Amino acid sequence: MTSNCGLYLHIPFCLSKCVYCDFVSFSGRENAFSDYAEAVAREAAYYKEKCKDKFFDTVYFGGGTPSVLPSLLLQKIVFALRKDFNILPDAEWSMEVNPATVDDEKAEVLKDLGFNRISIGMQSTNDDTLRFLRRAHCKSQFEETVKLFFEKGITNLNADFILGLPDQTKDEVVFTANYLFDLGVKHISAYALKVEKGTPLSKMVRENKVNLPDDDFTCDLYDEFRKAALKKGFERYEVSNFAQKGYECRHNLNCWQYREYLGLGLNAHSFIFGKRFHNIQNLDQYISRWMSEKNSVSTSRRLSKDEQKTEFVMLGLRLEKGFSVSEYDNLFNEEFYQKNQDIINRLQQQKLIIYDGEFIRIHPEKFYILNSIITEFII
Ligand SMILES: C[S@@+](CC[C@H](N)C(=O)[O-])C[C@H]1O[C@@H](n2cnc3c(N)ncnc32)[C@H](O)[C@@H]1O
Ligand code: SF4
After folding, report:
1. Are residues 250 and 330 in the same domain?
2. pLDDT in tens, 227-270
3. What's the rounded Cα separation, in Å, for the pair 371 and 367?
4. Number of alpha carbons in the 13 Å side-chain half-sphere of residue 16
């Protein structure tokens, strides 16, 4: 593969844990911040030589809550990345932040470090819901965070929003689309709530202590939200992602378009050097491995050609524009249309997909059955 790559940094710390979240992140581990930054810097140095011919056009700090790290440690990590990797001058630099972790000084530092895209965890516009979710902020703090970044000149802002929350109404999701537009937010990630095993939310569900909307109603909420967002000029470019023109997240687009990325940090996943691999999940072990100059990869796998083809199609179909058939043909040296003509024609007749001679994409109204359409193409 010759195209540019993405760089992902996992920062596994949060102010507090939200009831629904099973991401690899911890609260109350401030004592590990400094060693963690050192470990990540060492991991970056380890990949320096291996990546000397790679060019990175996106850098994504995700988590957890990267903005919880003190400015000096963020600076240390950013300097290490700039030293060890060929990061293009016009690269997209994104960071996920929680509104409760950003003040004027932090916003200024992020700007100075070169971050040009900020993804803010909003989740809901309802303060009662935010309290229930054990979010560390309220709606007005979210607004202040948006304004702060605007003041610093960072206008490429995303808000994460969750659909299917307790007592969420259609009016509320329409309000949210309009509210985010009015605030000047350029990108919205709208995720359907997933009840993850082992979270406080799943315990509440088991014990009938919370009433969640059923799947049909969550689909209705998604549709209402989508219509309201489109009306305001957001375009859906991926199942859960809506952006104003030119504000699509380049980092995520790269992953869906099957470009390479290197992930550094706890539990980080990578797809590069012809392999998929990921790091261990235990924080203390991750740190101690790098402190003794040992690699932190837990599993690594070279994908077969068939697995690669399936992944290419599965990831591409998540995008509104779908996947390029000629790119597939070039990458895998075969003719996708000729090989899948019957399925393509049948799915077209059923109005489930659209094939325009170059791209194959899901019919815009059929995204709610995306997974079952994808299974038709499993190679
Ligand atoms: C790493 S967090 C974003 C930044 C920051 N940690 C925060 O929450 O403010 C990634 C996003 O994943 C989404 N998310 C996490 N767990 C989820 C779940 N169980 N169901 C739906 N969305 C979830 C949330 O919208 C969250 O903002
Ligand atoms: S949603 Fe964000 S802030 Fe909440 S626990 Fe997960 S990573 Fe941390």
Report:
1. no
2. 999 999 999 999 999 999 999 999 999 999 999 999 999 999 99
3. 8
4. 12
Residue among 10, 15, 16, 23 whose CB has most ligand 2 atoms within 8 A, to mutate:
23
Task: For tokens 């009433």, name the residue.
Answer: 211
Q: Which ligand neighbours the alpha carbon of 189 most closely?
A: 1
Mutate to test the pocket of ligand 2, among 17, 69, 267 (most ligand atoms within 8 A of CB): 17
Q: pTM for this structure? A: 0.96
Residues 77 and 41 sit within 8 Å (Cβ to Cβ) = yes
Looking at 256, 282, 305, the residue that finishes a domain is 256
- Say yes or no: 335 and 229 in one domain: no
Residue 263 domain-assigned (yes or no): no
Report the separation in Å between the CA atom of 27 and the middle of ligand 2, taken as the mean of its atom positions: 10
Among 373, 371, 379, 357, CA closest to 311:
379
* Domain CATH number, residue 201: 3.20.20.70
The Cβ of residue 310 has, within 10 Å, a number of other Cβ atoms equal to 16
Judged by DSSP in three states, 160 sits in: strand
Sorting pLDDT into bands at 50, 70 and 90, what band is 3?
A: confident
The average pLDDT across 165-186 equals 98
pLDDT digits (tens, 9 = 90+) for 332-357: 999 999 999 999 999 999 999 999 99
Q: Is 179 in the pocket of ligand 2 (CB under 6 A)?
A: no
**pLDDT tens digits, one per residue of 48-94:** 999 999 999 999 999 999 999 999 999 999 999 999 999 999 999 99
Distance 2 CA to ligand 2 centre (A): 35
What is the average per-residue pLDDT within 179-198? 98
Cα separation, 190 vs 360, in Å, equals 24
Q: pLDDT at position 2, please? A: 58
Q: Which of 232, 256, 280 is the last residue of a domain?
A: 256
Domain residues for 18?
5-256
Q: What is the mean pLDDT of the chain?
A: 96
Does 18 sit in the ligand 2 pocket, CB within 6 Å? Answer: yes
Residue 213 located in a structural domain: yes
Residue with the smallest CA separation from ligand 2 atom 6 is 21
